[in-house]
């Protein structure tokens, strides 16, 4: 019996396992994919160093209610995600493990809920297919191993959707109904958009208006109590925060309250100041790539999906909700690909019953096979170009390092990944195209989260810049930074001073001059692209490249004779933030 034959028989063998055993197999496989690599890398920009530093400061200071970034109040997000990282840091003492654990565990919970809901709505074969479809979409695994808030809020949203769908479509369960609203509240104090499951009521009420006999035991007056549960959970954070801010009474504390309650919610949605994209951004750029191959599979299953929609209201509601969520984020001018992650589990659930009972259209297998080959060939070609120092690749890598050996290492990784894709296509040619794609993707992910992390780690942290700076700074000296980035605080083994994230470059420049004038043995790290009025950079020491910038180190020898005083003296010093590295 060949390996190819066994692999073709494997799905049927697994789907016939008892429920608990199949769930264990699915979660064990997912845990292998999601947990592999945790502890092998540090927090990487853009968002990870920020959240890790906030969590580190919570543990170091013992003050968890008001998040601090480099000693300054951090108002961009509510603290739930940072609390989770801080908890695991406090528990393990290892920040490299702690910062990735919350999303890893949340993603496993999301996957388990998808499996269970698919089983309850249809059967365990469909539940398992839904879970595997979720895993094959790149965005799910990527976010499961990133310390961004979105995987956690997607988990809370999935719990809420699970509760509502179970109440309305499996069997009436007021306990699950109110649990759903509680997790919407938790989602709101994690990242504002936790209320999205409430959009399920739009298709549910529309179906009720079409036929008043629907939802007889589930859509009752008690439903109106759900938002009160949500507000109670929000109040559990909101009330102590407002009281703490009122007690402090400082301008900074009041600005924190107003920023997090108003600017980071309604204003950010309606009048975004960053990540501006056209309304069709998600449909054209994000979903086709980060959710691949699910959009293609939807088209290949269009006929059976149409039949299912005629008699399965749960699929109608799930698909309608996916459309509503994508539309909700599309209406905001500010867009990031991760925003639509909460809709991905619902799409996987919607496709699973059609795939469970029908084969995709014939063209689907051909397209997937061609893309499989092209992707493998492209990776191999990129690897060869990297070995041969192609100018475009050299230029790209130069944004992160001046060491040409790094490009050659990356080339070997790319060549290996390409070989995996081509070899899997040939070895499992008799298997279904989607199965081959799944195998290649999972093996590639394991290679990337081990070998790939080792290659990328020196390129995604500022350790080289800080190490070079520390060679010039005497024992007991302090390091400051103009236009600081959180990763520089997180990795600094010296006391680190910055001049407020919310200050203009001009005000930071002036405050840095005042600080250096009053602080002996003080040095400034600054990107060489900045034009400063209070310092000259002609004699500055170059300390390397990181994060697409080249940095120099300024001392008191680089100060101008005089400098305009800042509008307000502002500086924040963090003592030995890099202690966690020891």
TrEMBL record:
Every Glycosyltransferase RgtA/B/C/D-like domain range: 76-237
Main subcellular localisation: membrane
This protein's UniProt keywords: Cell membrane, Glycosyltransferase, Membrane, Transferase, Transmembrane, Transmembrane helix
Pfam families: PMT_2
TM regions (residue ranges): 21-40, 73-91, 151-170, 176-207, 228-249, 279-301, 313-331, 337-356, 363-387, 407-429, 436-456
Presence of keyword Nucleotide-binding: no
InterPro entries registered for this protein in UniProt: LipidA_mod_glycosyltrf_83 (IPR050297), RgtA/B/C-like (IPR038731)
An annotated GO cellular component: plasma membrane
Source superkingdom: Bacteria
Membrane topology annotation: Multi-pass membrane protein
Location in or out of the cell: Cell membrane
Entry GO MF terms: pentosyltransferase activity
Protein's GO biological process: lipopolysaccharide biosynthetic process; response to iron(III) ion
Protein name: 4-amino-4-deoxy-L-arabinose transferase-like glycosyltransferase
